[in-house]
Write a structure and sequence with these properties.
The structure is a single chain. By secondary structure, this protein is of the alpha/beta class. It folds into three domains: about 150 residues, Cobalt-precorrin-4 Transmethylase, domain 1 (3-Layer(aba) Sandwich); about 90 residues, Rossmann fold (3-Layer(aba) Sandwich); about 130 residues, Cobalt-precorrin-4 Transmethylase, domain 1, CATH 3.40.1010. Helices cover about 40% and strands about 20% of the residues. The strands form five sheets. Strands 1-9-8-4-5 form a five-stranded parallel β-sheet, covered by helices on one side. A five-stranded mixed β-sheet has the order 2-3-19-14-15, sandwiched between helices. About 45% of the residues are buried.
Length: about 400
């Protein structure tokens, strides 16, 4: 019998060395390297820049981008399509477009793979895809390059176990986010599998109210109409609960939601019932936790302004910006181009907003100033370095002179 030609790849193609030069050229940042060698501090004149000790690309993002580059190298003559965005960073996604990778746009019902042929190569993003989308691609017989992050897979295993054991998966996340949609879909492996997505503590407390008999059914279903499994019945499906989370959410809030849900179950049914019918595990990824811990440590220092760099649709970057905004004047920029040196203006997205705005004179023209910087897990070092350069240039310092 002829050997079966593999069509599913999850461990790359052994071409890491071959694509390393391209990756380094596209994403390495000189000023970031200097910051690392100088205890994450650059001081020139009366400007001090402090970089959080954990920032930028995490292992899962590096792996996803690396595999995408390897796929292009492995299949130079094949059509390559990407299911959504590889990560939530416009610079990285634009690079892939320049390499000839086509992007498929997803929606609540999933991706339209109507244009995909068996000879095509389809890259699955770091967020993963839903079970339905995965099975559609399997049936097409195309080559699949799966870059789903290992931390996301760990959450899937947890949700799978909940559904297998008859618990509703209560997921702290954004119901429209690619990762959360893929995670929620894992319950579909089991007949009767259910999920409910809560965006924040306020929504979690609405669930607690219903568990404890204070909620109104119609209002509850209206609130969660886009965030629950089909035919979700709160009178039936909140009796047994397992808590999980989108890996990039605010860690302290995820832990707090797990705690209040357990307390609510105990108040409603007693401690023995809670022990038998409620589970919670911290499924925030270590990279998200490390970056949040590092920025909290940086915020203990005196800072005049905080710059958070990363895509506006990047959940982990938004979490970092929210932490910073509680303590210091904070600007979340999509990338360094948001800092207009000539005009002294910064284009940024305020916390809890979906619109970019401009702020003039964001950096004082004179006097000592300390600027803190961090970046989301999908932000490459060169974009962080570009932002550092523009901070200095805004005060008239040529970044090329910094050694």
């Amino acid at each position: 019998m002829p050997d079966t030609v593999p069509t599913y790849f999850r461990k790359g193609f052994g071409l890491k060395a071959e694509v390393q030069e391209d990756l380094s050229s596209d994403y390495t940042g000189r000023l970031v390297d200097i910051l690392r060698t100088q205890d994450y501090t650059l001081q020139v004149g009366d400007i001090t820049v402090r970089l959080a000790r954990e920032f930028g690309f995490c292992y899962g993002v590096e792996r996803a981008v690396d595999y995408a580059y390897q796929a292009r190298r492995k299949f130079p003559d094949r059509r390559i399509v990407l299911a959504g965005e590889i990560i939530h960073n416009p610079h990285v996604n634009d690079k892939l477009r320049e390499m000839g990778v086509e992007f498929l746009k997803g929606g609540p019902a999933g991706f339209d793979f109507g244009s995909v042929q068996p000879a095509d190569v389809v890259i699955l993003p770091a967020f993963g895809v839903t079970i339905h989308d995965f099975e559609q691609l399997r049936k097409l017989g195309c080559v699949m390059v799966d870059t789903t992050c290992g931390s996301v897979l760990n959450v899937w295993k947890r949700v799978d176990a909940y559904a297998r054991d008859g618990l509703t998966s209560l997921i702290h996340g954004k119901h429209y986010h690619e990762e959360t949609r893929a995670t929620a879909s894992q319950v579909e492996r089991y007949s009767g599998g259910r999920y409910l997505v809560v965006r924040d503590m306020a929504e979690a407390l609405l669930v607690c109210d219903y568990i404890e008999g204070r909620g109104e059914r119609g209002a509850f279903l209206a609130t969660f109409q886009h965030a629950a499994s089909p035919d979700f019945d709160p009178d039936l499906h909140l009796q047994r609960i397992g808590v999980a989370n989108q890996t990039t959410m605010l860690a302290r809030e995820s832990l707090a939601i797990g705690e209040v849900m357990g307390q609510s179950m105990e108040r409603a049914h007693g401690p023995d019932y809670r022990a038998q019918n409620f589970r919670t595990f911290d499924t925030i990824c270590s990279a998200t936790q490390d970056r949040q811990d590092a920025v909290n440590a940086l915020l203990e220092e005196p800072l005049d302004v905080m710059l958070v760099i990363g895509g506006y649709n990047s959940s982990n970057t938004m979490s970092l910006a929210a932490i910073c905004a509680e303590r210091v004047r904070t600007f979340h920029v999509g990338d360094a181009t948001g800092i207009d040196v000539e005009r002294g203006v910064i284009s940024h997205q305020p916390i809890a907003s979906h619109n970019e705005v401009e702020t003039a004179d964001w950096l004082p023209a004179h006097g000592p100033i300390r600027v803190g910087i961090t970046a989301g897990a999908s932000t490459p070092n060169n974009k962080i370095g570009d932002a550092v350069a523009r901070v200095f240039a805004t005060r008239g310092i040529d970044p090329r002179s910094i050694q």
